[in-house]
Write a sequence for this structure.
């Protein structure tokens, strides 16, 4: 099922597997200027001279290829693209990593004692999140590979927190090292994720301080050993670059503005992929139901990640740059939104778990119906208000006003037909809900046409 959904999410590439993914914006992506170019260069040197190049002579006066984080030299799946340097190879690996990240989150949620349906929903919400698919269009190949391993990193850290075996330590360190080998920038982000998540277990782990500190030391040691083949030449290279001298303004390029947070509620079209914030309105609503499971770590994780994604618009980003070594080398604060999307997907899975729990459902059935109704009416009023005062209705608002009530109706119908305990009067409420939903969509679609637009009337 995950494979089928991945094909749906990547349907343009599924229909045209040898095409290069591009955005609608007029920009050249890393897919073309870095990943495909490196693959062709390595393939050419390999086939012409029978050796693997360690130096890239095609960039200015040259630079060490093995120290370039975008070359992905030491990530074994990348060698498929060196042997066959064609778009199909990259698209196949992107597809595999989208499936892999969904599978990883499924196992992580299952390890948190969620039912298969809840775990599957969270996995689908994560693998299909718009920012990740936007990165496919943006050609951020190495970023997609690295991000795909984040759920697996959480999974092995969870296993390590429950059992301090050296094997679990090696597995967790190995996944983090893979993140570094794929793209050292995301390796640093993976390190922040590791420390943050593992710290949530400290109250229980401090009972055995000796094992805690010894395993933490081994975790750092194994991570460094596994990734040293890239880290050592990279450390040498960094001394000859301007990366370490970035100012706060340079590091904060592509920070999210407070206005971008509206993307939590409605899709925004025409944005560069780095500024995408839409996570899906159904996923967002269900994440609030995850509060019932008291998942306060993930709530705080999401809130903290939002603050970091705002970059220079809050003091936190500059403060962490002074506090954490290496943080000043990071650019594009909006990438922290991936942590937001991951946290919300996890909370939505806990939300599904709350809903399918019949005893909890009976307690919240009235609130659930009111929530669906209130959310639907809100989107209707927003769309109608914009239509009356600022025609035509923006595509994002139009999409929201049509699909939110429809999805709410489908969820409501599913609950009524599968859970008899939902409510005795549910069928009557469902009929009313359907009539309201049909009328408001007809009104908005008619209002969006040129016949009723204000500029036509005037």
């Amino acid at each position: 099922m995950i494979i089928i959904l991945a094909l749906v999410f990547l349907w343009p590439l599924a229909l045209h597997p040898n095409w290069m993914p591009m955005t609608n914006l007029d920009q050249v992506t890393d897919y073309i200027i870095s990943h495909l170019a490196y693959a062709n260069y390595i393939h050419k040197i390999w086939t012409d001279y029978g050796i693997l190049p360690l130096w890239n002579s095609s960039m200015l006066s040259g630079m060490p290829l093995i120290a370039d984080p975008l070359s992905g030299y030491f990530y074994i799946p990348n060698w498929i693209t060196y042997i066959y340097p064609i778009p199909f190879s990259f698209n196949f690996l992107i597809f595999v990593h989208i499936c892999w990240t969904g599978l990883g989150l499924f196992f992580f949620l299952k390890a948190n004692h969620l039912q298969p349906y809840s775990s599957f929903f969270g996995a689908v919400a994560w693998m299909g999140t718009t920012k990740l698919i936007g990165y496919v269009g943006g050609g951020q190949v190495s970023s997609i590979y690295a991000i795909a391993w984040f759920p697996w990193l959480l999974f092995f850290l969870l296993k390590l927190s429950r059992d301090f075996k050296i094997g679990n330590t090696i597995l967790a360190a190995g996944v983090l090292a893979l993140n570094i080998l794929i793209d050292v920038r995301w390796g640093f982000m993976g390190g922040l994720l590791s420390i943050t998540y593992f710290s949530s277990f400290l109250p229980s782990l401090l009972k055995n301080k000796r094992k805690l500190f010894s395993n933490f030391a081994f975790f750092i040691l194994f991570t460094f050993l596994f990734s040293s083949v890239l880290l050592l030449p990279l450390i040498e290279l960094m001394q000859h670059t301007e990366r370490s001298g970035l100012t706060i303004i340079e590091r904060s390029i592509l920070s999210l503005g407070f206005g971008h947070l509206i993307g939590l509620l409605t899709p925004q079209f025409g944005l560069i992929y780095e500024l995408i914030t839409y996570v899906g309105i159904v996923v967002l609503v269900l994440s609030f139901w995850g509060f019932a499971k008291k998942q306060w770590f993930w709530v705080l994780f999401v809130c903290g990640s939002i603050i970091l994604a705002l970059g220079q618009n809050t003091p936190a980003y500059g403060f962490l740059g002074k506090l954490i070594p290496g943080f000043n080398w990071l650019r594009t604060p909006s990438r922290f939104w991936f942590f937001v999307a991951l946290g919300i997907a996890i909370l939505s899975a806990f939300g599904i778990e709350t809903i399918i729990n019949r005893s909890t459902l009976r307690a919240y059935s009235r609130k659930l119906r009111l929530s669906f109704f209130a959310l639907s009416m809100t989107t209707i009023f927003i769309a109608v208000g914009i239509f009356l005062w600022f025609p035509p209705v923006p595509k994002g608002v139009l999409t929201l006003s049509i699909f939110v009530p429809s999805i709410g109706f489908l969820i409501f119908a599913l609950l009524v037909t599968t859970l008899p305990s939902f409510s005795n009067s549910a069928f009557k409420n469902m009929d009313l809900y359907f009539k309201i939903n049909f009328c408001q969509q007809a009104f908005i679609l008619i209002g969006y046409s040129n016949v009723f637009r204000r500029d036509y009337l005037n």
Notes: The longest strand covers residues 55-56. Residues 72 and 181 are 7 Å apart (CA to CA). Strands lie at 55-56, 63-64.
